[in-house]
Each structure stands twice: as structure tokens, then as C-alpha cells.
Amino acid sequence: MMKHAEKIDAIKKGRPLRVADYIFFVVLAVAIAVGSYFIYFPPVATPDTAVVAVYKDGEKLDDEYSLFTNGEFTIDNGALTLVIENGAAFVKNSQCGDRRCHRTRITRPNQKIVCLPQSLVIRIERGEKKLSDDDGIHFYA
Amino acid sequence: MRKETKNIAARRITRLALLTAAALILTLVENMLAPLLNLIPGFAFGVRMGLPNLAVLAALVLFGPIDMIAVLAAKCLLGALFAGSPTALMYSVPAGFFSFGIQYLLYKFVFPKISLISISLAGAIVHNVVQLAVASLVVGQDLFVLFPIMLIASCIAGLFIGLVVFFTVKYFPKKLL
Of A27, B23, B117, B127, which is least surrounded by CB within 10 A? Predict the structure, then answer.
């Protein structure tokens, strides 16, 4: 193993990148491309039964909203407004302040809008046969 | 002899203070840049560049792991106070320590087969994984659906930080080591 001074010398004399770096970059790029494809375009179609469910502090709230019935709904006593429009769900009038959740539009099962400050998660579920926590999605369970 | 020891201690404290100051200034710069980054569509989840990690990685390479831990701890604590959100500690402390743990191991055992840039990149990825895991636990929902977009952002940031640290070390005067 190299000593501290030798490593500093190696940096001072060496080039910024080595062959192993290029291999690492290619592997990483492929992994990101494949992973993103499956996360953003899951191999499941949005069924007619799809509903929008809301979770507060990890607990599912009672109301579910069909993804195919347009409307505006007040969530958690006015914490935010959920808008459903032509098979897409998004959020407006969030009370959280930074309003990052306003940027996300979801259309497919298992996609989510997250409001960390208010601990709210809005998720599309399949309806009758919903994707529940038992489906092995939770890595930490 | 005793005077010499004191001198070394004084030098060390000074350079740790300088690195911590650099990390905090970078935290402030990053906070100013954050709204700009959020204008880019898709970068919804409060993506940050992680500029302060520059000072921490430089501390590891130039002065070793113990100094790195000191700068990292100071950066996490003071950075959270500066940014005005102590709850950020919940995310930044585990993510920071895991990320720099990996970077230290890579630097100790794999470097120079891979460069500082790859080490920084690996650190950025681990940082995101841990942060998302903590956020998932806090919210009680699997948030890894956000992973790809965060990963792309962190790769860009990791590459940039690795490159800056490389050139910092390359042109760092030897007599200051």
C-alpha cells in the first residue's frame, strides 16, 4: 500500500482519469439508464381501476380518489390540494413553503408525489388489487 | 521539543479551522445556488451540489482521515445551523459519514488504481442512497422512485467535486502539507 506522501506525489504527477475510471463511468451510465427506464416506465399499464391514495406519516388516509374522475380535493385539512385531471395527478396550494411537490405529475401505478415537510405521500395504486406494502417494495421492512 | 509539538498542534488546528471555514462558505454558496438549480425541470427533490464535500475530501487527501472526520462533523453541525434547519442533521450526518467512510476505504485501498474523481463519484452515490433510505424511514414510504434523477444530479456533482479536489491537491504547495 502506498504511503501518504507517495499518494500526493501520484496525484501531482498523474492525470485526472485512469482506465479503470472510464470502465466505472460506463458501467454506472448503463446501470442508471436501465434502472431509470424500469422506474419511470414500469412494465405495468395503468388499469381503469387505478386510484390515488394519500399517506400521512406512513399511515394511509381513508379517502381514495379515482385517477379517471377529474376533480380537486383538499387533503389533510388544507395541507395541500390534490388535482386529478385526465388520468394525471398533481398538487397545488401546498402549505409546506418550498412547494417542491408542485413540480411532480404522476400517471402510473406506484408513482409518488412526496411532501417531506408535511410528511405526505400521494401514490397511484392499482385499485381493486392494489400494490400494498406486502409486495416486497419496502427495502427496510 | 515541547515547543515543536505545540507548533504542530497549532498548525493542525489552523488548517482544520481553514477547511471548516471553507466548507461553511461553500454551504452558504450552495444555499444561494439552490433556488437556481430548482428551476431546472425535474430537479424537484431539493437537489444540491454538495459543494462543502469539496473541503472534506480535500481534508482526507491532504491531511488524512482524522482531520477529515473533524471537518465533516463540524460541517454537518455548523452547516445545519447556518442553513437554519437542524432537522437536516438527520439526513446529513448518516449520509456524510457513510459517504466519507466509503471514500476513505477507496482512497486507502484502491487508489491510485482509480482516480479521485471516481472516489468522489462513489461517495456522491452512497450519500444519495443513505439520504433516500433515511427519508424513506422518516416518511414511512419507499422513496427510491426518486433515485434515478438524484443519481444523475449527484453524478454531475461528484465528477465536478472530484475534479476540483484533484486540481487542488495537484497545485497545493508541498511545504504546507
Answer: A27
